[in-house]
Amino acid sequence: MTRRTSRRAAILVLTPLLVAGAGPALSNPALPPLLYVSNEVANTISVISLERDAVVATIPVGKRPRGLALSPDRRTVYVALGQDDALGVIDVATARMTRTIPAGRDPELVALSPDGKTAYVSNEEIAHASAVDVGSGKLLFSTPVGVEPEGIGLTRDGTKLYVTAETSNSVSVLDAKTGQVLHTIHVGDNPRTVAFTPDGRRAWVSAEAGGNVTIIDVATDSVLGRFTIRDGKTKPVRIAFSPDGRLAYVTEGAAASVSVIDVGTSNVIDTIPVGRRPWGIALPPDGRRLYTADGRSDTVSVIDTGTRKVVTAIPVGERPNDLLYIP
Q: In whole angstroms, what is the distance from residue 288 CA to residue 311 CA?
């Protein structure tokens, strides 16, 4: 059996497993590349086969799933369940949620430590950022940050945690081990996302209401500059960088588009129309296809990055929010 045939066979097993909601673990490890989609209103995860550009499974989870994160061994997905005050733990092989971990009030987005032992969440309703030991479920810290925290990300070395605050228009920089606030950085209005460049030297923070991006030097936690995206009214949200770090792709909820930005000049060089209110974004390591979660269209747009055009739109659950690529 060829590798391609083997991967297809694995997906054929996966599809009825999730429809039935039960079944043994998959014995074939050669799963094809997958895309997980958190459906915020449907309370499900859609599993997309990237070989087929189609949903092959739907995983019931808890209430209001949003942020997604993948363990370093690629066996486990963590999903923030905002109305359950928990992280859902999903086994990738069986595509089943196996347990939940308390994660503080209203977790929105989640990031994992490089060793996969600690999950960090932004607790939107209580204005905290929390760290949880995923093995024991022990709360390691819960630190007050700015009002309405959302975006969360770890520096490349795993020592610092960046947390955006929508109402405070700030980024809190925390010591990832102790939770101590090291710096507070002023950014644009209504910051949504923090994304690190592939070399780990810069952090980009999108400001939805401000219509701009703030660039931060990670070594010094200082602002290097800020630039406006187009007319400043497109409401930028999530950011993905091309593998070579030369381009940034930014979803724009109000404009129903993705802006393509030259990282060296901070200029918008192209705009790609997608579905309504694009939010989540994913770009696999080969950089050939870009995916957006179109929250008001209930679709995932598939973009050819060479032509910068949508090649298909995949129907998913109601109100798709975050995307997670699984090799």
A: 12
Range of the structural domain that residue 241 is part of: 3-326
pLDDT value of position 18: 41
CATH code for the domain of 34: 2.130.10.10
Residue 235 has pLDDT above 60, yes or no: yes
Average pLDDT for the chain:
92
Structural domain count, the chain: 1
C-alpha span between 18 and 47 (Å, rounded): 10
- Evaluate whether 52 touches 33 at the Cβ level (below 8 Å): no
Signed CA dihedral, 275, 47, 281, 271: sign only: negative
Rg for the chain, CA atoms, rounded: 19
The per-residue pLDDT for range 83-132, each reduced to its tens digit, is: 999 999 999 999 999 999 999 999 999 999 999 999 999 999 999 999 99
CA distances from 221 to 127, 198, 316, 325 (A): 21, 17, 38, 29
